[in-house]
Write a structure and sequence with these properties.
Layout: E1 2-10, E2 16-23, H1 26-35, E3 38-45, H2 52-57, H3 62-77, H4 82-92, H5 96-110, H6 115-119, H7 128-140, H8 143-199, H9 206-220, H10 222-241, H11 243-255, H12 260-281, H13 285-295, H14 299-313, H15 318-322, H16 331-342, H17 345-402
């Protein structure tokens, strides 16, 4: 199937419409338009944009998707037909890549497909939660409300993830500063100390000699270091793409010191917030568990939720099914049990999500506050140790000469 852009006149409203559709040929595209009640004015085959820089600059952000979703929800809620709502949102969309996708969705909807089916053709942009909520909204007749829920879900998830990234950014920057200080000392100061000792025909102290040897090795064999790091990084990346590597990475995130508990709360907040949104829209319990498991982006927790789903399918309550799982925090099954007794599971899951989101905010602030002095001490020790290894021998030489 080829993709075509077109201009056509709507025979009902006499308005000129611009969009895209898929067909086998240009004549096939014209035939489709006529069948849909349009008079074709211009049809042109659309070529794929292969430029890497263009694709990178046109990356679809969470903000782009949230704005698109809210605009579509508002227009549908105001009573506009779905096709007209999509055309209106398309005109307001700034991101070129998202524009292209919305054009394809519009063409698919006008071709007789449902909105959720049209979204499901673009799973790289619209995740399973998004598609499930849209599908549930179509079935229940509350598509505008479902789209608003999707936008709220995306915003909260993006805000939480952004806070985690911010907490991890500072330590990484400080580590780069430490490596920069070490490189500066090794390549500029240490060679001068070595030259001074050679001129005076003195033997370098052990720690200074180690630094000199390290500097000389890096100067003469820098290509080997780059090769080893490059090859090591390549194999590490390839390993992390395997099932074993993914499992190792996901398990490590749940157990890493300092940040492990933070990641667990992040996943529990995401699980309960997504579960609340899906159940509140009318998605079944088993579908909710399947979709939330996929949305967590952690295979270890996904398997835990799949096991719980199997138990629920066998007749157990969700709270009982989740309780024995290692990485499910205790508050989750406890609150879900209250929801099961009161018939308000989605509401209880929302309260759990709120608790963990607040705890996560507090934990991120605490980590950011406590990690700064620790990293400053590490930086001072490394820099001070190197300075000491350089200056102490010089003081020794000066004392020797004065004596």
């Amino acid at each position: 199937m080829k993709k075509f852009t077109y201009e056509a006149r709507d025979q009902a409203s006499n308005k000129v419409v611009k969009s895209t559709l898929q067909a086998d040929s240009e004549s096939g595209a014209a035939r489709l338009l006529i069948e849909q009640g349009f008079t074709p004015l211009k049809i042109k085959e659309q070529t794929e944009e292969k430029n890497f820089i263009t694709r990178l600059s046109g990356r679809i952000t969470t903000k782009d998707k949230v704005v698109f979703t809210r605009q579509l929800a508002t227009l549908i809620g105001a009573g506009l037909p779905l096709s007209q709502s999509l055309h209106t949102v398309l005109e307001q969309t700034q991101n070129k890549q998202l524009q292209s996708i919305v054009q394809e969705i519009t063409a698919s909807v006008e071709g007789g497909k449902s909105l959720s089916e049209s979204f499901s053709k673009h799973t790289d942009v619209f995740d399973p939660v998004f598609i499930a909520l849209v599908s549930a909204g179509e079935i229940s007749g509350t598509l505008d409300e479902s789209l608003q829920r999707v936008a709220n879900q995306q915003e909260k998830d993006a805000a939480t993830t952004s806070k985690i990234k911010s907490a991890l950014t500072y330590p990484i920057i400080v580590l780069f500063v430490i490596m920069g200080v070490m490189a500066f000392m090794l390549f500029t100061v240490v060679p001068q100390v070595e030259k001074l000792y050679k001129d005076l025909k003195k033997q370098l102290p052990t720690i200074t000699q180690v630094m000199v040897d390290s500097a000389n090795f890096l100067v003469h064999f820098w290509w080997l270091v780059i090769m080893v790091v490059g090859i090591g990084s390549y194999f590490l990346v390839q390993y992390l793409k395997t099932d074993a590597g993914i499992k190792f990475k996901d398990t490590f995130k749940l157990n890493v010191p300092i940040f492990g508990q933070m990641f667990r709360k992040l996943y529990m907040a995401r699980f309960t917030r997504t579960g609340q949104t899906l159940l509140g829209t009318g998605v079944s319990m088993l579908d909710m568990l399947r979709i939330t498991g996929e949305s967590l982006n952690n295979t270890v927790l996904e398997k835990s939720i799949i096991r719980a789903a199997d138990k629920v399918k066998g007749g157990k309550a969700l709270s009982v099914a989740l309780q024995p799982e290692d990485y499910i925090l205790p508050l989750v099954p406890q609150m879900i049990k209250i929801g099961e007794q009161s018939g308000r599971i989605d509401e209880m899951m929302g309260k759990v999500a709120q608790v963990y989101e607040e705890e996560l905010d507090e934990e991120i602030r605490n980590i950011s506050t406590s990690i700064e002095p620790i990293l400053m001490v590490v930086l001072a020790v490394v820099a001070g140790g190197m300075v000491g290894a350089i200056l102490l021998p010089i003081y020794g030489l000066v004392n020797g000469i004065s004596v």
